[in-house]
Amino acid sequence: MIASLLILLALASPAAAPSSDDPLTSLAWMAGDWMGVDGGVEMEERWTEPRGGMMLGIHRDVKAGKAVDFEFFRVAATPEGIVYFASPRGRPAVPFRAVESKDNRVVFENKQHDFPKRIIYWLGGDGSLHARIEGDPGDTEAAMEWTWKKVPLSR
After folding, report:
1. Shortest CA distance to 71 belongs to which of 54, 55, 59, 53?
2. Which among 8, 43, 78, 79 would be 20 to 30 A from 66, CA to CA?
3. What letters, b where the CB count within 10 A reaches 16 and e where it falls short, cover 34-69?
């Protein structure tokens, strides 16, 4: 009961602004609730503000009222640099190291991974969040891309 109340209070409290000395401040543009629809699939992506050297994210796809896919991820400041950890469908996390970050665009890469090799996020001129995953040229799955619009946080 008390734990539930604490969780509700935390959710109802406004999010703290990211600290300017947090190593992930340059990625604050990713934070928020994002939604899009593609081929009848409703896509949700949610990112927390940078705090404590970490951002947490979730993704869920819903088709005809049924969840059809999900993913957990986090971006963390590590001794090796900024790393994106992808955990599709709850599998063990796969690391992708940031190789570029500027102008509301970030590229994460793991050349040893089968697919994808690169994960790219950017903020479009209209305020949309875009994501793209890429493999090597000639791969069966060369690339996939998504676009989401920012929506008010649902509680």
Report:
1. 59
2. 8
3. bebeeeeebbbbbbbbbbeebbebebebbeeeeeee
The angle formed by the CA atoms of residues 32, 127 and 40, to the nearest 5 degrees, is: 75
pTM of the predicted model, to two decimals? 0.84
CA separation for the pair 1, 40 (Å, rounded): 39
- 25-151 has which CATH code? 2.40.128.20
Q: Give whole-number Cα distances, 130 to 38, 45, 78, 114, in Å.
A: 13, 11, 25, 22
pLDDT tens digits, 18-71: 556 899 999 999 999 999 999 999 999 999 999 999 999 999 999 999 999 999
Contact predicate 81/95, CB 8 Å: no
Two structure tokens written together for 14: 């406004």
Q: CB–CB of 141/115 below 8 Å?
A: yes
The residue extents of the domains of the chain are 25-151
Provide DSSP, 74-112: EEEEETTEEEEEEEETTPPPEEEEEEEEETTEEEEE-TT
